[in-house]
Automatic annotation (TrEMBL):
GO terms for biological process: SCF complex assembly. InterPro entries: ARM-like (IPR011989), ARM-type_fold (IPR016024), CAND1/CAND2 (IPR039852), TATA-bd_TIP120 (IPR013932). Residues 64-88 are annotated as: Disordered. Belongs to the CAND family. Residues 220-352 form the TATA-binding protein interacting (TIP20) domain. This is Predicted protein.
């Protein structure tokens, strides 16, 4: 009866009720996997319109087995917590069934489905790294997985994995995950070198993953910086072949398909500057990596880019001038001031 009520609630017209039903279904499944987990997995195919909600329920089952934050541990109830964690551990058979469903949905046309799938995969990888890390790494290879959506999901899963690892503060787990994160940057199948030029979703996801990992735990990213920085800086370039003009009758609208990637690349460079290259956190890193020249090259174009990119570029320039790159910035002053002069002297439209 409970199962029927919760599944029926997924058809509710209100999103709040759907979300509550999904959360409740996941909660009861976490408490009684033998009874409810097979139902959730089976309904993925039987109720395709509710796949997102069912994946959210599955996410609750996966989340139930994760360790609590250290900050929440008051020193009491350790025995109960340990017992609950053991109870929540997925069996190999359950893991196989869950992974089968998740990998089937990794290439979904729905972005929401892919995002939840990636989060589930990332959380599972933090719990079963030896099993999941090779799976995620292999899905970065365009030869094995030509579908760009699947590769985006794999890269996004690494982002959630990095966050989970940083939360646990487990040195052994971090050592296992760092190479997987590096695979997003280094090597022939690196996501930052993906050939998905048309929509550049994989590249954008890789930049966002690197940024999130650096923000969560800089030590996961530091070994990859010599390769990551040049790759990111290359993605800040404005590519004319990605700019097109759409004819809207009496009007023409310019569409820049590379804008989102450039913005993600600059945001990642900004995060790396704070987390990995800041003089108070990693003295001399900017000089050792020779990063100043690359940053300033990116800023030369970024300061004259579209508004979304320009705002991040200005913030990066301020940080560079306050850090180890102030001398390099002075030497490039003329090139940096030119795009800023155009911004200051630009005539705004009457409806701006």
């Amino acid at each position: 009866a409970l199962e029927r009520v919760l599944l029926a609630a997924l058809d509710a017209s209100g999103e709040d009720l759907k979300s509550a039903a999904s959360f409740a279904l996941g909660g009861v499944a976490a408490g009684n996997r033998a009874r409810f987990l097979p139902t959730i997995l089976a309904k993925m195919d039987e109720m395709p319109t509710h796949r997102y909600s069912l994946l959210c329920s599955l996410g609750e089952v996966i989340r139930a087995g994760e360790p609590e934050d250290d900050d929440d541990d008051d020193g009491g109830g350790d025995g109960d917590a340990s017992s609950a964690a053991k109870t929540a551990q997925l069996s190999d058979a359950e893991l196989d069934q869950i992974l089968d469903v998740l990998f089937k949905n990794a290439g979904s046309d729905e972005e929401g489905v892919r995002n939840v799938t990636a989060e589930c995969l990332g959380r599972l990888a933090a719990r079963r790294p030896t099993r999941l890390l090779p799976e995620l790494t292999s899905r970065l290879d365009p030869a094995l997985h030509p579908d760009a959506s699947t590769r985006v999901t794999a890269v996004t899963a690494v982002k959630h994995l990095a966050r989970a690892v940083a939360k646990r503060k487990d040195a052994v787990l971090s050592a296992l995950v760092a190479p997987c994160l590096a695979s997003c940057v280094v090597g022939p199948n690196a996501a930052l070198s993906d050939e998905d030029v048309g929509v550049r979703r994989v590249l954008r996801a890789a930049a966002q993953t690197l940024s999130a990992a650096a923000h969560a735990d800089a030590t996961l990213v530091t070994p990859s910086l010599p390769d990551a920085l040049p790759a990111l800086i290359a993605k800040t370039e404005i590519l004319k072949d990605l700019v097109r003009v759409v004819d809207l009758g009496p009007f023409k609208h310019t569409v820049d398909d590379g804008l989102d990637l450039r913005k993600a690349a600059f945001e990642c460079l900004d995060t790396l500057l704070d987390a990995c290259l800041h003089p108070t956190k990693n003295a001399g890193a900017m000089t050792r990596l020779g990063a100043a020249a690359g940053y300033l090259d990116a800023l030369t174009s970024g300061l004259g880019d579209q508004y979304d990119v320009k705002m991040v570029a200005h913030a990066v320039l301020v940080k560079l001038c306050r850090g180890d790159a102030k001398r390099d910035a002075r030497e490039r002053l003329a090139a940096l001031c030119e795009p800023m002069k155009k911004t200051l002297t630009a005539k705004l439209k009457s409806d701006a």
